[in-house]
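Please decode residue identities from the backbone states below.
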């Protein structure tokens, strides 16, 4: 993580740095005590909407400066290679989550068909097997990224124990929620926009089908 000074009275800079990065990667905080989000709000880095705390544009810009690796560096090159291995698997996890929520005919999956759900679980296993070597590769070049594989495996354990929300619910550290944080960190680390990301994913997925 790169250093970036953020002016916040009465709070250690390191504490603020970690908080703003966490908020931006998560996209929101829900149910956090005011003592945690008030310093960010006072610094113009967060806004409160009902029970949800959201990052401001300033927070997103700050997190981008903190996380961005040096352009043209060997580290950027190696992370880019891992990112490009990640993207085709990213398409697959989206397909899995869609299948979990909706059946092929467009109706809501009410989870009464155990055979259908078992098929989705098999597809999720394929995704999990595919992402493991990518994350191990990433861990060697991006400090702290090992936490993602741990969190994905914890979510998978909860899911297999019967807590179905641990696949795709945004209200817990579900498999999909952790995956989205990983994706967001990769974009910020490499300075890639969402539009560039979508175009590159489509290119790589199309190439893999040829």
């Amino acid at each position: 993580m790169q250093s970036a000074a953020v002016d916040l009275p009465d709070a250690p800079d390191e504490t603020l740095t970690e908080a703003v990065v966490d908020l931006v990667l998560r996209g929101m905080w829900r149910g956090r005590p005011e003592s945690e989000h008030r310093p960010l709000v006072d610094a113009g880095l967060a806004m409160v909407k009902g029970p949800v705390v959201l990052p401001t544009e300033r927070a997103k810009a700050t997190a981008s400066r903190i996380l961005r690796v040096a352009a043209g560096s060997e580290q950027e090159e190696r992370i880019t290679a891992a990112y490009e291995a990640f993207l085709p698997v990213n398409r697959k996890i989206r397909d899995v989550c869609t299948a979990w929520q909706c059946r092929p005919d467009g109706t809501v999956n009410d989870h009464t068909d155990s055979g259908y759900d078992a098929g989705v679980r098999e597809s999720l296993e394929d995704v999990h097997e595919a992402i493991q070597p990518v994350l191990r590769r990433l861990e060697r070049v991006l400090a702290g990224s090992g936490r993602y594989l741990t969190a994905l495996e914890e979510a998978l354990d909860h899911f297999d124990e019967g807590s179905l929300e641990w696949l795709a619910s945004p209200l817990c550290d579900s498999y999909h929620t952790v995956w989205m944080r990983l994706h967001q960190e990769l974009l910020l680390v490499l300075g890639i926009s969402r539009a560039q990301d979508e175009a590159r994913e489509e290119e790589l997925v199309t190439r893999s089908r040829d």
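Observation: The first helix runs from residue 13 to 26.
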